[in-house]
Design goal:
The structure holds two protein chains of two kinds. By secondary structure, chain A is an alpha/beta fold. Helices cover 34% and strands 24% of the residues of chain A. In chain A, helix 2 crosses helix 3 and helix 3 packs across helix 4. Classes of the chains: A alpha/beta, B mainly alpha.
């Protein structure tokens, strides 16, 4: 369990983390979401004590990270950016980490196998691709078989096989009762992996809930309606308080009233319906909506993302 | 893969394991090529320049000025070791800065501090490992230099390892190297950038001393004598020279105090700053 209480961090006059509090529970994969510059990486660095908080604290299993005597056995962290010397081999990198924690040499070979780097274990890491570097980072995080994992952008640089592999690995590790916090800028990845979400923006907590709740609570929930009597139906729905948009194919996208209500309206008026589909907002939609106001760099958020495009990325939730 | 054991409740996990941290620092040190290269350079430069310098001195024995000739006769050990080590020590300086600054350059420092979040044990282990390695290699370089140098010099000045103070000076050279290594690590840890750190240590070792010598009067002499490496290098003398304000081991003590102060500053900054 990771507990963050009133955590703050400022660089000079700039407050980057503002009294953030949340709890990450064991047994599930918790996604850590936020637009660029929201403070995800900084929060993770604060949790593991690389940066000093300006206020508040973070504990792991009730202890501050710095008080863990052999921390790699309690917490595995994969942080943003390189942590290996380009002239040192993958094996030696893991070996010195293992030695510092009294972890056996056999475990080094084990994690190298686990992440698929055994064949290049004695190559210098300077020759590694981004994906191989990421696998080495994961090997380091898993070295101490820790009950808590903090992974900053773990799928960064991985190919589709690698992404699937890590998704399964994380689900498996969570199933063993571990506490797992992963940050990612790929919403689709979060939807596929995380069951709980912590959403932040501009250094503040926006919401902490399950992924399902997050999508359901989004006001972007809509109903897709196809009808030969579209014009008449539009009038009825509008009169009942719904909001109607017509797309290029003449389908109606209805917001503010639900499918059952629309069905009842059509039935009473004797109008024919060909399709009546509730579409939940994708995680992308919900995320954009909830974090938009807090995005530090508005320009980096794709304002006009069409539902069709989002659906093509995430697989539409209907 | 057991998850039942969460955080440290077992006895063997309730404290840090310093021998493991030492071993980790040794693994880090030996697993990059620059370490081995710099140590080889240390030996080659020290012995090579000792031979070169002394051969030139002997060949021009009758042309060199009296003061220099007198100083060689007064303490040949200091001349022999000083000749090559003056340059050889730069390898220690550069490598000492590199062992910490390269961690910042590559990001390894974050992996290191995740493993040892108290930070001080990491710095202590790094300094200790480097000091021991440098001591051993400097002794190899020094003894080799001494035998080469004494052989070249013997036609003009006879010096043997059994002479008073000589063995102490030879051992002292290794100790000087070890402390210089820690001094360099401290500079590297404070500056955190390779280029800046190397510039800083070179300034201490090569630039400050000649500058201080330009200061007038006894104040200038005292400032010069108490500069870290000026004081430290006295330890390679077989005995206190006529112009020395400090004895060899007093000089070494002054240098050690400088180093202790600097490593304390480095440690405080390491603990305070974001990594």
């Amino acid at each position: 369990m990771i507990e963050v209480r009133d955590l703050s961090k400022s660089y000079g006059a700039k407050l980057v983390i503002d009294r953030m509090s949340f709890t990450v529970h064991p047994g599930v994969v918790t996604g850590f979401l936020g637009p660029n510059g929201a403070g995800k990486s900084t929060t993770m660095r604060l949790i593991v004590g690389l940066d000093r908080p300006s206020g508040g604290d973070a504990t792991i299993g009730g202890m501050r990270y710095a008080d863990l005597p052999r921390p790699l056995r309690s917490v595995g962290a994969l942080l943003d950016g390189a942590t290996t010397h380009p002239g040192r081999s993958a094996f030696d990198h893991l070996l010195y980490l293992a030695q510092s924690q009294q972890i056996s040499r056999d475990r080094v070979d084990e994690v190298l196998d686990l992440v698929g780097l055994r064949d290049v274990a004695h190559d210098r890491t300077g020759s590694f691709s981004l994906g191989m570097g990421q696998r080495l980072g994961l090997a380091a995080a898993l070295l101490g078989d820790p009950p808590v994992l903090l992974l900053d952008e773990p799928v960064n640089g991985l190919d589709p096989d690698g992404i699937l592999w890590i998704r399964n690995l994380l689900t498996h590790l969570a199933g063993e009762g571990r506490t797992i916090l992963i940050s990612s800028h790929l919403m689709s990845e979060m939807a596929a992996t995380a069951t709980h979400l912590i959403v932040i923006g501009r250094g503040r907590l926006i919401t902490a809930c399950t992924t399902e709740e997050f999508i359901e609570h989004s006001s972007k929930r809509s109903v897709l309606v196809t009808s030969p009597d579209a014009v008449a139906l539009t009038d009825l729905i509008t009169a009942a308080g719904g909001q109607v948009e017509t797309d290029a194919e003449g389908e109606l996208i209805v917001r503010l009233i639900d499918a059952a209500h629309i069905g009842a309206l059509a039935s009473h008026a004797g109008l024919e319906l060909h399709q009546l589909t509730t579409r939940l907002a994708s995680l992308e939609d919900a995320f954009m909506e909830q974090t938009h106001a807090s995005a530090e760099f508005g320009g980096e958020l794709p304002n006009g993302v069409s539902p069709a495009l989002v659906a093509s990325i995430t697989g539409a939730t209907s | 893969m057991s998850v039942a054991v969460t955080t440290s409740t077992n006895d063997d996990r309730t404290s840090i394991y310093f021998p493991g941290i030492l071993r980790a620092e040794w693994t880090k040190f030996r697993s990059v090529r620059s370490s081995v290269a710099a140590l080889i350079l240390l030996v080659v430069i020290s012995v090579g320049f000792t031979g070169l310098f002394l051969a030139l001195t002997i060949s021009q024995w009758d042309q060199i000025d009296d003061a220099q000739r007198l100083s060689i006769v007064a303490d040949p050990t200091r001349t022999i070791i000083g000749a090559g080590f003056q340059l050889g020590q730069l390898a220690i300086c550069v490598l000492g800065v590199l062992v910490i600054s390269s961690e910042y350059a590559s990001g390894t420092i974050r992996a290191s501090l995740l493993a040892v979040p108290l930070r001080t044990p990491m710095l202590a282990a790094k300094a200790l490992v480097f000091a021991v390695v440098v001591f051993v290699v400097t002794e190899v370089a020094t003894f080799a230099s001494f035998f080469v140098g004494a052989a070249i010099l013997h036609t003009k000045v006879a010096v043997s390892i059994g002479d008073p103070g000589v063995l102490g000076a030879l051992v002292g050279a290794g100790l000087y190297g070890a402390v210089l290594g820690v001094f360099s690590i401290a500079i590297g840890a404070i500056v955190r950038h390779t280029a800046g750190g190397i510039t800083g240590i070179i300034a201490f070792v090569l630039v400050l001393a000649p500058l201080a010598q330009l200061l007038p009067g006894t104040v200038g002499d005292h400032i010069h004598a108490y500069l870290p490496t000026v004081a430290g290098q006295l330890v390679v003398s077989a005995h206190q020279g006529a112009d020395d304000l400090l004895s060899p081991w007093q000089g070494f003590g002054v240098f050690s105090l400088w180093t202790a102060a600097l490593i304390l500053v480095a440690n405080t900054m390491l603990k305070r700053r974001d990594a």
